[in-house]
């Protein structure tokens, strides 16, 4: 038998056909009908069936009565009654803001929706944030500041239409492989198409580029501003588009007046002529588009990185047309779905803003509750800081591994240890976060649950359940709703039974769709039946529509009060931490081709270690020589926050003075924590996304006993 679903790894959102016998998953192949991949899968997607092994899964709820005790197996009733009791006690004694949910872009949209509704609609706090905060919240803020709404305007089919693709802060060859295959196809079909890659490292993507700009970490704004300077100087801007469809250009023009290619070349560490070439290719191309990812987002000025890049599209009028526009890729499979339901501490359902009283009233009316609290919730880093200070007493984590993935891990682990009651809802019981859980709840995962996901190009896919979940594992939405119905009466909110009495995920999707009526992402024309009949669809898809919309802003109108897009004058800061004598190397982080996130899934597939088989720090040969290091030596990597031991590997992909470690590796025989023992928690003021991409370190030979 074959069941349609999507790959649960990256934001490309490839369609898969799960092969199974009704009890066990036996294989997987790409769905030839899915518009994201047309049957192709990368190494990770094509080995998914090897991750579906019950013996690697969490099968039963486990609970401990007090900290320090071992957890014991319990039934679902005891598990969820205890959770409801403990959360109710905290809420009564310390208030609603003393509890929090920390969820994940791995969850399906229906799961995200009920978590969000439970915290904001029933409990009465906005303390629900997600690991998507670490991945794309700067892109959200940049889109909203410039285009007026969190809506990537492009489609994958634009890769085949563009004459110039500028990839900045992304390595799609590894991180979004099937999207990159489409870029390669486009270049092969039209050799005149220009590919420009901005990345401190000569990645696999950069190696295929017509022009690689190996800028110093954190200097992207200077580069984009200098490109705009050239576009202005050489008359390559679209003055009619700027006049009719934008606001704020005069201020930005003044700002970039002094940022010439020569000035930016000094700051960015690249040739001024290469900046001019990039600007000319962009400006002279009939159709140009940009593609960005974590390299821009994970920065203390990630929002303005995005805004400065978007300004290139607006200044040249290259938006809303085939092969044009600023395109942010999401790292996770359903980060976009989480954004749609407002599953972040500062958002509300259907791209509404928490700070807008009308939006709060609309959502309260839709949910049938008196109000939605005004006070913004705690974002990821703030949340764990608050827990460290004792202000968060009960935390519910779902489908993510903060003890591996958040920056400044020692502090995160201290925070988890100090929290009175930690619930972890997970498919796998052996993550770095699991030891901190007082209650462990087994969740269904890929192939075992039904719902929807939205990929990077706004395309919603109905994913289906192929087999029953193993042991006592349950679907995430089902666990949340059961907990909500038990919690409600304990906190004086019997309406929980009505609010969370869904018959199944389809009913949740239908309610979510109704919240989008009249909004920019209106999907009132979608249902599971429509998605099954027509296939995956891009939003918006309002009632009466016959198909989704591939491209936004074709009419030059933007979802702002006056219909015009905005130019933003960026704050041209550098990285939060500077190299110095004690910490002279600039460490960047990124992805491997064959691993994904914290490896709780890919780490279980032997063949995915064939590409890179262990954690290592890549250093330029000069830096290796300076330290007397040989390939394969064990080295101690120290930052101001912690240290880890890794093997050193010489690399010609990076410049002297820089280092690279893949983000995936967690605790191992040599280390109690992974790469994020070194990273820092400083974050962007608008998006609150931390600067996971950069830290300064020292590397020295490890003399282990
Ligand atoms: Fe999965 Fe992404 Fe690979 Fe597609 S490109 S198969 S979504 S990991």
Automatic annotation (TrEMBL):
Keywords (A to Z) from UniProt: 4Fe-4S, Iron, Iron-sulfur, Metal-binding, Molybdenum, Nitrate assimilation, Oxidoreductase
Domain 4Fe-4S Mo/W bis-MGD-type per the UniProt entry, residue ranges: 1-56
Which co-factor is required?
Answer: [4Fe-4S] cluster; Mo-bis(molybdopterin guanine dinucleotide)
Q: Does the keyword Plastid apply?
A: no
Superkingdom per UniProt? Bacteria
Q: Record's family?
A: Belongs to the prokaryotic molybdopterin-containing oxidoreductase family. NasA/NapA/NarB subfamily.
Q: What is this protein called?
A: Molybdopterin-dependent oxidoreductase
Classification of source organism = Bacteria, Pseudomonadati, Pseudomonadota, Betaproteobacteria, Rhodocyclales
Q: Which residues of the full protein are shown?
A: 1 to 705 of 918
């Amino acid at each position: 038998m074959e069941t349609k679903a999507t790959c649960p790894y990256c934001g490309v959102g490839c369609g898969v056909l799960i092969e199974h016998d009704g009890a066990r998953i036996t294989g997987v192949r790409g769905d030839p009908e899915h518009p994201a991949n047309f049957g192709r899968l990368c190494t990770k997607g094509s080995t998914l069936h090897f991750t579906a092994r019950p013996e690697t899964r969490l099968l039963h709820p486990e609970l401990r009565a007090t900290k320090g005790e071992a957890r014991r197996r319990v039934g679902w009733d005891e598990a969820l009654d205890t959770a409801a009791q403990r959360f109710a006690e905290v809420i009564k004694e310390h208030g609603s803001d003393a509890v929090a949910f920390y969820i994940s872009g791995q969850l399906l949209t229906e799961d995200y929706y009920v978590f969000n509704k439970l915290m904001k609609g029933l409990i009465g706090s906005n303390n629900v944030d997600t690991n998507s905060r670490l991945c794309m919240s700067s892109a959200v803020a940049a889109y909203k500041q410039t285009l007026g709404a969190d809506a990537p305007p492009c489609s994958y089919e634009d890769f085949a239409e563009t004459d110039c693709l500028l990839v900045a802060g992304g390595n799609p060859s590894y991180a979004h492989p099937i999207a990159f295959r489409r870029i390669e196809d486009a270049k092969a079909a039209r050799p005149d198409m220009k590919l420009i890659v901005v990345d401190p490292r000569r990645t696999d993507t950069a190696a295929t580029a017509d022009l690689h700009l190996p800028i110093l970490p954190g200097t992207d704004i200077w580069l984009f501003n200098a490109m705009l300077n050239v576009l202005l100087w050489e008359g390559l801007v679209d003055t009619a588009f700027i006049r009719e469809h934008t606001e704020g250009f005069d201020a930005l023009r003044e700002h970039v007046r002094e940022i010439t290619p020569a000035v930016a070349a000094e700051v960015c560490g690249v040739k001024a002529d290469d900046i001019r070439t990039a600007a000319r290719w962009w400006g002279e191309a009939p159709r140009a588009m940009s593609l960005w990812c974590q390299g821009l987002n994970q920065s203390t000025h990630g929002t303005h990185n995005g805004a400065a890049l978007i300004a290139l599209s607006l200044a040249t009028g290259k938006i809303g047309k085939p092969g044009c526009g600023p395109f942010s890729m999401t790292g996770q499979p359903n980060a976009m779905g989480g954004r749609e339901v407002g599953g972040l501490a500062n958002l509300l359902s259907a791209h509404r803003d928490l700070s807008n009283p009308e939006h709060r009233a609309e959502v309260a009316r839709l949910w049938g509750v008196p109000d939605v609290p005004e006070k913004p919730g705690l974002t990821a880093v703030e949340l764990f800081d608050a827990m460290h200070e004792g202000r968060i007493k009960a935390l519910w984590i779902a489908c993510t591994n903060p003890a591996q993935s958040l920056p400044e891990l020692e502090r995160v682990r201290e925070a988890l240890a100090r929290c009175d009651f930690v619930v972890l809802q997970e498919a796998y019981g052996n993550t770095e976060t699991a030891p901190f859980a007082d209650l462990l709840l087994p969740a269904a995962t890929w192939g075992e649950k039904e719902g929807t996901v939205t990929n990077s190009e706004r395309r919603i896919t109905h994913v289906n359940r192929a087999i029953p979940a193993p042991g006592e594992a349950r679907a995430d939405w089902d666990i949340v709703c059961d907990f909500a119905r038990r919690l409600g009466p304990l906190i004086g909110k019997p309406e929980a039974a009505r609010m969370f009495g869904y018959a199944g995920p389809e009913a949740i999707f239908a309610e979510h769709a109704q919240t989008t009526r009249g909004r920019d992402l209106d999907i009132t024309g979608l249902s599971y039946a429509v998605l099954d009949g027509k296939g995956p669809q891009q939003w918006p898809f309002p009632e009466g529509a016959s198909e989704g919309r591939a491209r936004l802003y074709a009419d030059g109108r933007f979802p702002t009060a006056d219909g015009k897009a905005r130019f933003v004058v960026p704050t041209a800061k550098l990285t939060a931490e500077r190299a110095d004598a004690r910490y002279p190397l600039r460490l960047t982080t990124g992805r491997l081709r064959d691993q994904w996130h914290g490896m709780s899934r890919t780490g279980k597939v032997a063949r995915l270690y064939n590409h890179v088989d262990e954690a290592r720090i890549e250093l330029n040969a000069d830096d290796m020589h300076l330290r007397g290091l040989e390939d394969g030596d064990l080295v101690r990597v120290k930052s101001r926050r912690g240290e880890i031991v890794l093997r050193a590997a010489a690399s010609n992909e990076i410049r002297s003075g820089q280092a690279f470690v893949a983000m995936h590796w967690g605790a191992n025989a040599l280390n109690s924590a992974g790469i994020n023992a070194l990273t820092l928690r400083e974050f962007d003021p608008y998006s609150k996304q931390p600067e996971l991409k950069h830290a300064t370190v020292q590397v020295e030979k490890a003399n282990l006993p």
